[in-house]
Every structure is written in C-alpha cells, then in structure tokens.
Amino acid sequence: xxxxxxxxxxxxxxxxxxxxxxxxxxxxxxxxxxxxxxxxxxxxxxxxxxxxxxxxxxxxxxxxxxxxxxxxxxxxxxxxxxxxxxxxxxxxxxxxxxxxxxxxxxxxxxxxxxxxxxxxxxxxxxxxxxxxxxxxxxxxxxxxxxxxxxxxxxxxxxxxxxxxxxxxxxxxxxxxxxxxxxxxxxxxxxxxxxxxxxxxxxxxxxxxxxxxxxxxxxxxxxxxxxxxxxxxxxxxxxxxxxxxxxxxxxxxxxxxxxxxxxxxxxxxxxxxxxxxxxxxxxxxxxxxxxxxxxxxxxxxxxxxxxxx
Length: 308
Description:
This protein is an alpha/beta fold. The chain is 41% helix and 23% strand. The strands form three sheets. A six-stranded mixed β-sheet has the order 8-12-7-11-9-10, sandwiched between helices. Strands 4-3-5-13-6 form a five-stranded mixed β-sheet, with helices on both faces. Helix 1 crosses helix 2 and helix 6 packs across helix 11. It starts with 17 loop residues before the first helix and ends with a helix. Belongs to the LysR transcriptional regulatory family. Keywords: DNA-binding, Transcription, Transcription regulation. InterPro entries: LysR_HTH_N, LysR_subst-bd, WH-like_DNA-bd_sf, WH_DNA-bd_sf. This is LysR family transcriptional regulator.
C-alpha cells in the first residue's frame, strides 16, 4: 500500500519543547530575544537554539530579522494565542500538582470587580495567607461580564461576581448583600439628615458609578419614582475615586455600603439612602470541573469572612 504523504507542519515523531514555547511566548511579549533570555535565565545562544528547534518542529518561520530585531511572522502571530493557552494549561497542571502535594505551595488566581478587589478582597487574602503563607495569589480586576467569562473558561480558579448574572457554566454561591449609602463631605448641606431620599437630593450634584450598568439603572429608577433625574457632576468607576471626589467637595456619592468602608476617613460622612438599593455578590467557579482543594479551602475562608 502506498504511504500517504505527511502534510506540512508538525511531524508526528517530533515533540515540541515546552521550554521552546515559553521562549517563543516571552519573545512575543517583550519583543526581544535578549529580554526573553534574561527573563527566563537563558543565554542568547540557548534562546536562538530553542527558537530554531521550534521552527524546525512546526515547519515554518516564526520570526524574521529586521535590522537586528526579531519580528513575528504572520504565522507566528496566529500561533501565539494557542501557545498562551497551552502554557496556561501547563501552569494549571503544575499548580495542581503542588496543590495535591500540600498547601505549602500553589497559586490561586482570582478575578473580581475593581471596587471589590480593592476594598474587600485584601482582608480575605490576608486572613488566608496567615494560615497558608506559602500560597501565592494572582488577582485580576475586571468588569462583571469579563470576569464571568474568565471564570467559566477557567482562566482563573475562582472569582467574585455581582448579581444578577448569567449563571450558565458557573457554580455560584451568594456570599453577601449590602445596602447603599450617601457619601459626602461633613459640611455638605444634607449631612444633617439621618436618611436621604431622591427628593432631598433634588438638584444637588452627584458622583455616580457604572453608567449603563444595572446598578445605575436602579439609581435612575429611584429618582424617577420621585419625578426627578439625578444631576451628575462626575461619573467614575471605583468606590475609591468616588470617595476622593466627595472628600474634595465635588458632590455627593451614592455607593455600596460594604465596599465603601475602606475609604471612609475624615472629612467624609455617610447617610442611609432611601429607597434601599441592594448589592448582592457571589463566589463563583467554573462548573466544567471540580475546583482544586486549594480553591475550595479559599472558598471556606470567604464563607467564614462573611459569617456563613
């Protein structure tokens, strides 16, 4: 029987070195073989040898030289995304091996909304690391939509999401619910009130978060119930920046009572906002596979932190 020709590309008897893939990824990231070598503790000849080996394995050029610089080819650019996913999978495998061996090492990758990552998460991580000081954390702050995708696709081990959200492909457990408060300078005209309504606010300038998001529609609806529209002086995206703006007298901020706590210093004061607007958060993991023991241990820490 006539042997079928082998198509161009990787030959079945050639194994691609993970080390070569890391070199390729690092050159694409830094744009320099020299910088990649320094980052990976490899000599220049070793970097060149590994790239040449990888190009021989895959059967096409990944870079070309332009005035002494390595420039990725179109094929190299097409390949990098898959290489990054492969290396990420290998990192997860290595992390899992360390996790199984014990909690003396390992990494927990977390994603959370920016204000949650800045305001609440540091306390939880610090408590966990008191028990397991060898555990490393990688914390990413993204929008709810991006965070949800990262958790479902297992780019991270776990995350925190504001509810409601699409729960498909996720295993979700609600962990905390909090109300809303008005944050203002202590000399603000409405600081004398115990509870503030949209009618009280009237035409006073506001500092608001999340234009176009569900939370913002709730604020707009609460004003509409009084036949009013909020007068927005500043729009921002984090509780920290909103509090800083309020402290400088730029207006009153309506914020999450839980996430605002780390930023409440003089001259700021808070007053209850009525009607109540609730903020609910959940701990989430992908439901594609069971979380690692380390992730589950961190989840237990989260539940204890919120008294669950």
